[in-house]
Design brief:
five-stranded parallel beta sheet; about 400 residues; oxidoreductase; monooxygenase; about 30% strand; single chain; EC 1.14.13.1; salicylate 1-monooxygenase activity; FAD-bd
């Protein structure tokens, strides 16, 4: 059997992970990316054991480890009082519990590591500055129609994987009525030098600060040299973009009554980027024939369980496994979808439920905090064992 040629649309985390997994499974891979360079916006990403086990399997974990941080603990904080609601040790304790490390890393460092690994593999070809305009299928191939500068080109492959994100062009052809759903919230993101913060706020701990209508997440990145901040607030602006400037005064207005430590974090960046939060309702199908979807193109979810990147990486490993085992490419793609759809839909639903839980106000907020205080931080982690303990 001749070497299969798989075309992956999108050179984000999911697309590059898919390229690596497919190449390791014996395929030749062409990665198509609309941007002229592989760049990622400045934000952090949390990777639990379900994702880091995949990175180990892909031979990428060693590349990211030096720039990542393995938090020593996590803490859920009362945003207004500044008191700890619950906490748990991380590090070696959580790695032993779930069979893999939990790390936090700057997203650009993760994407750069994946891209470097892909470029070192002769079976992977990365083609930049090309945008998917459509595709047509025949019995034995898919023809992908691309815009390239002022011109166009068509590439033929044995399969097409749409890993082209929330606004996926591939999904747009497959399911034109499947539109992203606006969550009426914005995520404000920034990083600050750890040296600019008090030591108590720059330690290797992931903190989730909860308050009425808004929350804040802080954790170290860049081998501990910087602190990543994500503030989530109500927002009615349904403007999509990854690099929209956010006005610090507007952000702080959502946190006027918060604790001194939370405000110290929020006031530390010189610059915030703001983007509207969208997700997708679970799709009834991810593909047809020789075409399928992966990552946010298939199952974009709110960031409240820190599983968006992890689920895309899981997708990549499963996709490569099913295609390697299948004698027939369409059958392998449908097997991949059957394995992944129930899990990703469950994670999507769980992430949406966190939206409400994180932002409770009044008596409901007090009751939530009482329940969390009564449970150990370990119990909070165990609640999501079904996510973290996943194996390919």
């Amino acid at each position: 059997m001749s070497q299969r040629h798989i075309l992956v649309a999108g050179a984000g985390i999911g697309g590059l992970a898919a390229a690596l997994a497919l190449a390791r499974a014996g395929c030749r891979v062409s990665v198509i990316e609309r941007a002229g360079a592989i760049e990622e916006v400045g934000a952090g990403v949390q990777l639990a054991a379900n994702a880091t086990r995949c990175l180990l399997a892909l031979g990428v974990y060693e590349r990211v480890r030096d720039m990542a941080v393995e938090p020593a603990g996590f803490a859920v904080m009362d945003g207004r009082s500044g008191r700890v609601i619950t906490r748990a040790p991380m590090g070696a304790a959580v790695e032993a519990r779930f069979g893999g490390p939990f790390i936090v890393i700057h997203r650009a460092d993760l994407q750069a590591a994946l891209a470097a690994a892909a470029r070192e593999m002769p079976a992977i070809d990365i083609r930049l500055g090309r945008t998917v305009r459509g595709f047509t299928q025949a019995a034995d191939r898919v023809s992908v129609h691309l815009a390239r500068g002022e011109g166009s080109e068509t590439l033929e492959a044995d399969a097409l994987v749409g890993a082209d994100g929330l606004r996926s062009a591939v999904r747009g052809v497959l399911y034109p009525n499947a539109r992203p759903s606006f969550r009426h919230r914005a995520a404000w993101r920034a990083t600050v030098p750890a040296s600019a913060l008090p030591a108590r706020l720059a330690d290797p701990v992931t903190r989730l600060w909860l308050g009425p209508g808004a929350h804040l997440v802080s954790y170290p990145v860049k081998a501990g040299a910087a602190i990543n901040l994500v503030a989530v607030t109500p927002d009615a602006r349904e403007v999509h973009g990854w690099n929209l400037e956010g006005l610090p005064g507007e952000l702080i207005a959502h946190y006027r009554d918060w604790s001194a430590d939370a405000l110290a974090l929020l006031k530390s960046p010189d610059r915030w980027l703001r983007w509207a939060l969208f997700d997708l309702d679970p799709l009834p199908a991810w593909g047809t024939g020789r075409v399928t979807l992966l990552g946010d193109a298939a199952h974009a979810m709110p960031p409240f369980l820190a599983q968006g990147a992890a689920q895309a990486i899981e997708d990549a490993v499963v996709l490569a496994g099913t295609l390697k085992e299948a004698g027939d490419i369409p059958a392998g793609l449908r097997r991949y979808e059957a394995l992944r759809q129930p899990r990703t839909a469950r994670v999507q639903r769980a992430a949406r439920s966190m939206d409400r839980l994180y932002h409770l106000a009044g008596p409901a907020r007090i009751a939530r905090d009482l329940v969390m205080r009564a449970r150990s931080g370990d119990a909070v982690l165990e609640r999501y064992r079904w996510i973290y303990d996943w194996r390919a």
